[in-house]
Amino acid sequence: MTAEPASPTEGVVPRTFAVLEALTRSPEPMRLSALTLRLGLQKSTVHRILAGLIGLDYVQQNAETGCYSATLKLWELGANVITEHPIKRAASGFLQELQRVTGETVSLVIRAGDDVLYLDKMISPRPIRFTTRIGSRVPAPLTAGGKAILAHAPDAEAVLERTAAGMGGKRRLDVAALTVELQEVRERGYAMASYQPGVVGFAAPIMARGPEAAAAISVSAPAERVDEKGRQEIIEHLLSTCASMAEQVGRL
C-alpha cells in the first residue's frame, strides 16, 4: 500500500520554516492568533516554535504588544548566500553599465519554481513607477524576465497552466496566447511585458551552459518615456549585455 504524501507543514522543520516565512512576508509584526490562523496549526505548536526561534535569535517579541517579528539574523544569512551567488557576482558590472547607457532601471532575475526572484537591481535616477525590490518574487509569466527564462524552459507550458490556475479571478492568464508568445521570444531573443500599469519591461536571457537560461536581465521604464527609437536602443543594449555576460557566466 502506497503511503500518502506528507503535508508541507508536517514535521518540525517544515512548520518552523512556515512560521519564519509568514513572519518575514508580513508587513507588520504578527500576533500568535494571526499566525495560528494563517498556518492552520495548533496555537500550542506555533507558540513552541516561536519560543525556540526566539532562543536562537531569529524571532523577537514586542514586550508591549506581544506581537512577533523576524530579526535581522535572517537577513545576515541571506546576505551571505546572495553575495556568493555566481550569477550575481558576474552580473554587477554588466548591470551598472546597462543602467548607465539606458538611464532606466535594470534588474537581474533567476527562476525560483514558477516565479522569478529578483537578485539585483540598479534603480534609474529618473522618475519611475516601478516598485519591485531585491528579494521579491513575481509569477514568471507576468514579467519580461520571467518570459525570457521560460522561453527556454522545457516545462514552460506547465508553469503557465499552474500560474493561470493559481490566479483565480484576480487576473486572467491566456495560456494559449502566452505559449505562442514564448515561441516568439525564443526566436527574436528578447521578451516584453507590462506587469505594472504604465511601466514597460524588456528582458533577455543569459544563456550559459546547456539549452536553458541561467538568468535574465530586464530594463524597465515608464511607457510614456519609451518611444520607438528608445525601445530599439534599449533592446540593442540589452541583447549585447546579456550575450557578453553569458560568455563570462559560461566560464564560471
Question: Could you give the count of β-strands?
Answer: 8
> What is the radius of gyration computed over CA atoms, rounded to a whole number of angstroms?
21 Å
* CATH homology-level superfamily of the largest domain: GAF domain
- Read across the widest sheet, the strand sequence of neighbours is 5-4-3-8-7-6
CATH class of the largest domain: Alpha Beta
| N- and C-termini, Cα separation | 47 Å
> Mind telling me which CATH architecture of the largest domain this is?
2-Layer Sandwich
Protein name: IclR family transcriptional regulator
Keywords: DNA-binding, Transcription, Transcription regulation
Domain IclR-ED: 73-251
Domain HTH iclR-type: 10-72
3D architecture notes:
The protein is α+β, with helices and mostly antiparallel strands. It folds into 2 domains: 12-76, Orthogonal Bundle (Arc Repressor Mutant, subunit A), CATH 1.10.10; 85-249, Beta-Lactamase (2-Layer Sandwich). It contains 9 helices and 8 strands. It has helices at residues 12-25, 32-39, 43-55, 73-83, 86-102, 144-150, 156-167, 175-188, 228-249; strands at 59-61, 68-70, 105-112, 115-122, 137-139, 191-193, 199-207, 213-222. The strands form 2 sheets. A 6-stranded antiparallel beta sheet has the order 5-4-3-8-7-6, sandwiched between helices. Strands 1-2 form a two-stranded antiparallel sheet. A hairpin with a 6-residue loop joins strand 1 and strand 2 (68-70). Helix 1 packs across helix 3 and helix 5 (86-102) runs antiparallel to helix 9 (228-249). It is globular, with a radius of gyration of 21 Å. Mean pLDDT is 87; it is low at 1-8. InterPro entries: GAF-like_dom_sf, HTH_MetabolicPath_Reg, Tscrpt_reg_IclR_C, Tscrpt_reg_IclR_N, WH-like_DNA-bd_sf, WH_DNA-bd_sf. This is IclR family transcriptional regulator. Pfam families: HTH_IclR, IclR_C.
